[in-house]
Amino acid sequence: MGYHGRGREDLLEYRDWKDDMRAIAAELELSPSMYTDTVTRMYEMYDYSSKNGKTYCNFAVADVAYELNVYYPMYERTHYYTADAFYDWLTDKRAIEHGWQEVDLLKARIAANEGLFTVAVYHSDPDNDDDKDSKGNLHGHMQMVVPHSAVDEAFAQAGKLVYTNGELMNRPIDKIRLYICTNYDWHYSRTRPSQ
Fold first, then answer.
1. How far is CA 100 from CA 73, 116, 130, 140, 191, in A?
2. For residue 194, what pLDDT band results from cuts at 50, 70 and 90?
3. Total domains, the chain
4. Is 192 among the domain residues?
5. What's the CA gap between 68 and 51, in Å, rounded?
6. What is the pLDDT of residue 124?
7. Which of 6, 140, 152, 165 is most buried, judging by how many CB atoms fall within 10 Å of its CB?
8. What is the CATH number of the domain that holds 14?
């Protein structure tokens, strides 16, 4: 057994995946530094920290997606989807039509390290008090998987803690879904919603 108990066939699958992601990134003229620079620029421009019990993980993900010309759904072009709504949307066929696909953690890491926009999304659980704000409203969470040179992943996060080189959200790993987007042709005008 090889890397983390994976067999030869699995390792070959991930090698092929890396080659595919590298080819897509080259075709789209993407790079890890472009992705990282965009995340950093958005975090410097906007304050995504928690305010009045509200978090802004959806703003962070959406702002970076828009800067990279990746489709991120909005309500009536004026409101970003919340983490829960985005999670639900990603499981719909419309997400596939816009270039989104679900991947496992290793494929997410590979895609991010090649410069492709990659997100981790968690849908709120009514039985989990950590998913409720001060008024009892449910909130999911999302964060970006960002390029990282080490073996461990790095994530850009917004909310109670804001960082651009951290760990996967503190949620049950089996409840987190990871997605990449391979369509960078979404050009549109928008008015950024206010926080």
1. 12, 11, 28, 19, 23
2. low
3. 1
4. no
5. 26
6. 86
7. 140
8. 3.90.1720.10
* Cα 75 from Cα 77, distance rounded (Å): 5
Look-up of token digits 């890491």: 109
3-class SS at 168?
coil
Residue 83 lies in a domain: yes
195 falls within a domain: no
Range of the domain at 154: 3-181
pLDDT value of position 3: 46
Distance in angstroms (rounded) separating the CA atoms of residues 31 and 27: 11
Residue 17: in which H helix or E strand, if any? Answer: helix 8-27
Structure-token pair, residue 185? 């042709």
Averaged pLDDT for residues 118-133: 84
pLDDT at 57: 84
Residue with tokens 């030869």: 8
Question: Are 79 and 193 contacting, i.e. CB atoms less than 8 angstroms apart?
Answer: yes
pLDDT of 148: 77
181 pLDDT exceeds 80? Answer: yes
Which tokens sit at 85? Answer: 């709504």
User: Do the beta carbons of residue 81 and residue 74 sit within 8 Å?
Assistant: yes
Q: Dump the DSSP string for 22-77.
A: HHHHHHTT--HHHHHHHHHHHHHHS--B-BTTB--HHHHHHHHHHHTT----EETT
User: Could you tell me if residue 191 is inside a domain?
Assistant: no
Q: How far apart are the first and last CA of the chain?
A: 49
Mean pLDDT (whole number) for 116-134:
84
